[in-house]
Design goal:
By secondary structure, the chain is mainly alpha-helical. It has two domains: 212 residues, Alpha-lytic protease prodomain-like (Up-down Bundle), CATH 1.20.1510.10; 83 residues, Cation efflux protein, cytoplasmic domain (Alpha-Beta Plaits, 2-Layer Sandwich), CATH 3.30.70.1350. It has a three-stranded mixed beta sheet. Helix 1 runs antiparallel to helix 4 and helix 2 runs antiparallel to helix 3. InterPro entries: Cation_efflux, Cation_efflux_CTD_sf, Cation_efflux_TM, Cation_efflux_TMD_sf, SLC30A9. Keywords: Membrane, Transmembrane, Transmembrane helix, Transport.
Length: 307
C-alpha cells in the first residue's frame, strides 16, 4: 500500500465523526442522557484520532536525516498507538465513569425523541464511514480473514479505522437501546447501563489496538509468505544456501532485509558482487516494500566442517 493508503477511509471517518460529535453533544444538552454524553466524547475522541492518523502519514514522509538514517516511517505506528491510548482513556474510561454515576444516581431524560433521532442519523453516517473503510481494506487484505488482516497488517491506519467505526456503530446501537428502554420503562438506570456497555466495548477495542500497534512500533518482521518469497529470490545456482536472514518493517512501506548468504567457493569477488546485485533487483521487483537490503557473502562453515 502506498504511503497514503487508507487516506480516503480516514477522511470519511473524520468528516462523519466531527458532524456526529456536534449532533450528539447537542442531543445531550437537550436530554441529559449519559449515553449521549458518552457517545459525544467517543465521537470527539474519534475525530481527534483521525487527525492524528493523518498527521502520522504526513510526518512519516519526512526524508531521512543523520539522526534518523532510516527515516520516519514508524511515525505512523507511533500515532496509531497514541490513537489506541486515546480511545481507551477518552472513550472507555469516561463512559465507564459516566455510566456508573448514572446507575447510582439515575436522572430522568428530557426530550428523549431528540436523542433517538440523532442516534438514528448517526448510525447512517457511521455506516457510510464503515463501508468506506471496508472497501479500502478489501483492496489490500487479499485472502486474509478480517481478524487476520487486523493482526497481520503492517499498515496501521486501516485496522484502526475499521475497529473504531465498528465500535462506533455498536456503541450507537447500545446508546439507542439504553435511551429506548429508559423511555419505555421510565427507569433512567437503563441509560446508565447502556453507557457502561459502551465503555466495556471501547475498552476491548482499545486493548486490541494497543497490543497490535505496540507490536508494530517495537518492530515486526515480514510475514512467513513474504519471507519465503525473499529467500526464494535470494537463491540461485551460485548460492549454496541462505545461512540466516533478518527482516524488520521500518514503516508500512519500508522493509529492512539483512541476510548472510553462502556462495560457491569458486566465485571471484566480482562474480559475488554481481550475484548480490542481481539478488537485490529480484527482491525489489518481487517485494516492493524491500527498500533497504544488506547482503553479506560468507562460507557455509557448518557444511565445510562436516565435508
Amino acid at each position: 500500500m502506498s504511503a497514503g493508503g487508507g487516506t480516503k477511509a480516514i477522511l470519511a471517518a473524520l468528516v462523519a465523526n466531527a458532524g456526529i460529535a456536534v449532533a450528539k453533544f447537542g442531543g445531550f444538552l437537550f436530554t441529559g442522557s449519559s449515553s449521549m454524553l458518552a457517545e459525544s466524547v467517543h465521537s470527539l475522541a474519534d475525530t481527534s484520532n483521525q487527525g492524528l492518523l493523518l498527521l502520522g502519514q504526513r510526518t512519516s514522509r519526512r526524508k531521512a536525516t543523520e539522526e534518523h538514517p532510516f527515516g520516519y516511517g514508524r511515525d505512523r505506528y507511533f500515532y496509531s498507538f497514541v490513537v489506541a491510548l486515546m480511545l481507551f482513556t477518552l472513550g472507555s474510561v469516561f463512559a465507564l465513569y459516566e455510566g456508573s454515576h448514572k446507575i447510582e444516581h439515575p436522572e430522568p431524560l428530557e426530550s428523549a425523541w431528540v436523542a433517538v433521532l440523532i442516534l438514528v442519523i448517526a448510525i447512517g453516517l457511521e455506516t457510510y464511514s464503515f463501508r468506506t473503510a471496508i472497501k479500502e481494506s478489501r483492496a489490500v487484505k487479499g485472502e486474509l480473514s478480517w481478524w487476520q488482516f487486523i493482526r497481520q497488517s503492517k499498515t496501521p491506519e486501516l485496522p484502526v479505522v475499521l475497529l473504531e467505526d465498528l465500535g462506533a456503530l455498536v456503541g450507537l446501537v447500545l446508546a439507542l437501546g439504553g435511551v429506548g428502554l429508559t423511555v419505555l420503562t421510565g427507569n433512567a438506570i437503563f441509560d446508565g447501563i447502556g453507557t457502561v456497555c459502551i465503555g466495556v466495548l471501547l475498552g476491548v477495542i482499545a486493548v486490541v489496538l494497543i497490543v497490535e500497534t505496540k507490536s508494530l512500533l517495537i518492530g515486526e518482521g515480514a510475514n512467513r509468505d513474504v519471507l519465503d518469497e525473499i529467500v526464494g529470490q535470494l537463491e540461485s545456482e551460485r548460492v549454496e544456501r541462505v545461512i540466516h536472514i533478518r527482516t524488520q518493517y521500518l514503516g508500512p512501506d519500508e522493509l529492512l532485509i539483512a541476510a548472510k548468504i553462502s556462495f560457491t567457493e569458486s566465485l571471484s569477488v566480482a562474480e559475488v558482487a554481481a550475484e548480490i546485485d542481481g539478488a537485490e533487483k529480484r527482491i525489489r521487483a518481487s517485494v516492493p516494500a524491500a527498500r533497504l537490503i544488506y547482503l553479506e557473502p560468507d562460507l557455509d562453515r557448518g557444511r565445510t566442517a562436516t565435508a
